[in-house]
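ok trying this again, last paste got cut off
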Amino acid sequence: MLVKWLERSAGLLLVAIGAIIFLWKKNMMFALIFAGVGVVILVLTFISKKEKSNITLANFINVFTHFRVALDNNLNVYRALNITMTTTSGAMATLLESLINALENDHSVTPFINFALPFKHPLVSQIMINVYMLVNHGIDPKRLWQFNYLFETLVKEHNDAEIALHESSYERFNISLFVGTGVMIMTLMISIMGMIGAYIA
């Protein structure tokens, strides 16, 4: 959020500088350069990536953190899934409800695989297969350890990806700031050279 605010501030500053150059120096070319760079930065920062639903990896992790807590409290998988469903909403709740309803008639691994499909992540599929094994073979320490290991691996991978995304945002801001500063310095140098030339003449 801070990066977005800084990028928008830089964009507005460049647009303002462009307007000042045009009004003060009547220099259309440099005014357009400043204003153009500023507008591009503003447009890029206001383009938002809207999620159509809450079926995301982050929400899977959040929901199945509740599921894991329920398992740790010695609840069986069905009871844990039902309690977990009360902690979510939207498309994620619908997906979880579909899984629970499917388990009433289909005792194969298929409902678990179908649940994992929207996330398009191999670890989610492995976790859901492991949940199926917990249903059919009981919650023994070995299988619970496998579930926890897979889940923690997914959490670490997701957190690493989020950190990389934030670092990329900061890097993008630094580049836009560098470009804006470069344009300002170049314009300032040309203006100074023009003033010196006019003075000498």
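PB: full thing came through this time. The chain has eight helices and no strands.
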